[in-house]
Amino acid sequence: MHTDPASTATAVLAHVGGPANVTSATHCMTRLRLSLADPGAADGAGLRAVPGVLGVVEDGDAWQVVLGPGVVEAVTAEVRARAVRRAPSETALKEGLRRRDATPFTTALRRVANVFVPLIPALIGCGILAGVNGVLRNAGWLPGLTPALTTVASAFMALLAVFVGYHTAQEFGGTPVLGAAVAAVVVYPGVAKVTAFGVHLVPGQGGVLGALAAAFLATRVERFCRGRVPDALDVLLTPAVTVLVPGLVTLYGLMYTAGTVATAIGTAANRLLATTGAPAGLLLGGLFLPLVVLGLHQALIPVHATLIQQQGYTVLLPLLSMAGAGQVGAALAVYLRLRHHTSLRTTIRSALPAGLLGIGEPLVYGVSLPLGRPFLTACAGGAAGGAFIGSFAMLGTKIGATAIGPSGWALFPLLSGNRGPAVTVAIYASGLLTGYLVGFLTTYLALSRRAPDQGVPPEEPAPQPDPGQQPTRLPGDL
After folding, report:
1. What is the pTM of this model?
2. Helix (H, G, I), strand (E, B) or coil at 34
């Protein structure tokens, strides 16, 4: 069903307190992300009822409106064009933060996710190019082109810390370019001449975690300086102090510490899969859909980015991708079992292609979550697929992805591992089939144990005729 971006944006703005209540509007692959000056002015129930809105995640002043791939870009552009981008005063912002219902932990995860979400398109593009380049190199094709492709695919990853620093400062209220300047210390080749804790530093040591910490510290130093430095000297002293102090702390503390933490993450991920691969895969694959519903799945991006920088691929993403496979299997079972529910079947037909490509939110919010039990059986399918891939990790066969963002069938060009491309693709494809099959069977059986329409949202009722008038029967009426 075609969605008009203009009308959808109008309806969304009407239910979030009007254009003046929107202080920022961004989007990821499927969600419109809004920051609201007054969350109390928004109407969550009315927003969920807007045609084209698949779901809403309320997190204090940060609201996520699930619209699906393709649609979200157009609607975001319309919202940005109409919203009054007027940031509240610092006092009002602090009051709004105090009104938040979210816990400090979930708030921190959301803000970290906001740093990395804008980087996903570049991570996807460079990851695909790196995968294509790897195929060309292994096959010995186009040897004159592969060095150029290596440069194009690797340049962004080499400077990823700088972009992380820019968005970190932007998210936490600092000057973005100053955050980038401090984070650039992490990847500058000259750090090899610096000794910290008795050892020479290595360019890139600490990776994105070091850049995140360095830029966050820069925002604290900058905000401390503002208002304390005389206005006549502010333009000179504040930027200099903001770069100098966090820069030195980064060199003599953060890079070493973040490098230790990053190494521990890589070691823990490998050890977890090598020793408890099947149970770990079952747990990760089974719990990922609830994380998506809560909007917390993006908080795993720093972990993925750290693993990619260390090992060339993240071993966690293929496991988590199995959640989408379970969702697809559950949706197919609903489609076959509820044959008389026309609107639900229409939703499945329109959302299934995106689900096969790893974008499962349209199916989650449009099908399984409203039905209840199919959401749980979809999680069971994801758990089965995750356990399948995890069992191979216990046998020494690691399956990873060279970039983050895609999953499902879209992850095939990004797959990598330690056993060669054929084995890697075969194991991942078998994991998908396992997720499809278990998600389908458990959902079909769950729906078979009750009346076919029990728990299913009813079709939209037809308008009732006025008393005394003959009802008008339209073509297609039952």
Report:
1. 0.77
2. strand
